[in-house]
Amino acid sequence: MKYKKIYTCKDDTEAAVILGMLSASGIRGMSRDVEQGDIMNVMSGTTLYGKEICVPVDQVEKARSLMKDYDSAAEKEETVKKPKVRIPYLIVLVVFVVAVVLAIVMS
C-alpha cells in the first residue's frame, strides 16, 4: 500500500494527537522522522526536523480536509490573548523593596 505525506508537525506529541484524530475518523496513518530526525531521536530523545504524517493514497483527500479543520482550530487557539501577569511581579518587587529598606534601617 502506498502512503503520501499530508502534514509535517513539530514533534512526537503532536504526531500522536494527529494520528489519533485520523484514526478516530477511520483513516490509518503513520508518522516518520523528517531528514535526520531519527538519529536525533536516538541521541537526544527529540528531533528538530519534525515528523511527517502519511496516509494511504486513497484516503488523502479525507485526511487533508481533517487537517484543514485541525489547522483552523490551532490558529484560533493561537489568537487568544494571554492575560498579562504583572501582579505577581509587582508583589515580588514590593517585598524586595521592603526587605531592602528594613535591612538599611536595622543596620
Write up what this structure looks like.
The chain crosses the membrane at residues 87-106. This is DUF2007 domain-containing protein. It comes from Candidatus Weimeria bifida. There is one protein chain. By secondary structure, the protein is α+β, with helices and mostly antiparallel strands. The protein has a single domain, classed as Alpha-Beta Plaits, CATH 3.30.70. Helix content is 57%, strand content 16%. It has 4 helices and 3 strands. A 3-stranded antiparallel β-sheet has the order 1-3-2. The protein is elongated and about 80 Å long. It starts with a strand and ends with a helix.
Summary tags:
107 residues, alpha+beta, Alpha-Beta Plaits, three-stranded antiparallel sheet
Q: Mean of the pLDDT scores?
A: 83
**Unreliable runs:** none
User: Spatial order of the strands in the main sheet?
Assistant: 1-3-2
Top-tier CATH class:
Alpha Beta
Number of DSSP helical runs: 4
What is the number of domains? 1
Number of strands: 3
Main β-sheet description? 3 strands, antiparallel
Strand content: 15-25%
Q: Gyration radius, to the nearest Å?
A: 24 Å
Gist of the model:
With 107 residues, the protein is an alpha+beta fold. The chain is built from 4 helices and 3 strands; from the N terminus they run E-H-E-H-E-H-H. It has a 3-stranded antiparallel β-sheet with strand order 1-3-2.
What secondary-structure arrangement, pairings included, does this model have?
Layout lengths: L2 E7 L2 H13 L5 E4 L3 H8 L6 E6 L3 H20 L7 H20 L1
Antiparallel strand pairs: 1-3, 2-3
